[in-house]
Amino acid sequence: QVQLVESGGGLVQAGDSLRLSCAASGRTFSNYAVGWFRQAPGKEREFVAAISQGGGSTYYADSMKGRFTISRDNAKNMVYLQMNSLKPEDTAVYYCAADRRFGTGKYDYWGQGTQVTVSS
Fold first, then answer.
1. HSE, side-chain direction, 13 A CA sphere, residue 28
2. What does the pLDDT read at residue 27?
3. In contact, 26 and 41? CB cutoff 8 Å
4. What φ, ψ does residue 115 adopt, rounded to 5°?
5. Side-chain half-sphere of 80: how many Cα atoms within 13 Å?
6. pLDDT value, residue 50
7. Nearest 5°: phi and psi at 43?
8. Torsion sign (Cα): 77, 40, 61, 107
């Protein structure tokens, strides 16, 4: 089993940047692909970005391409989401998730989320 804890959320202004972190513990983290998702109030959860076990492959939701960057440091059991040029519509709770398979869109393990609020 993998335990995930997100951090780094907060209140920022439009145009600012934030880096979210996802700390993992439990089983060998390098065996797991990781994804970031977000859920805004009253909306369904949506995919943000994903990274493969070794970090060599990534993919993003179209609306995040060019603004968000996912990365990982397996030596530290960490995954990051760098978010630039933030917009009010990026306001949401952001979750990281892990799974042994990459690219399926399905994740077995989830964190509790971190709130990101972007003011206009």
1. 5
2. 74
3. no
4. -85, 130
5. 12
6. 98
7. -120, 160
8. positive
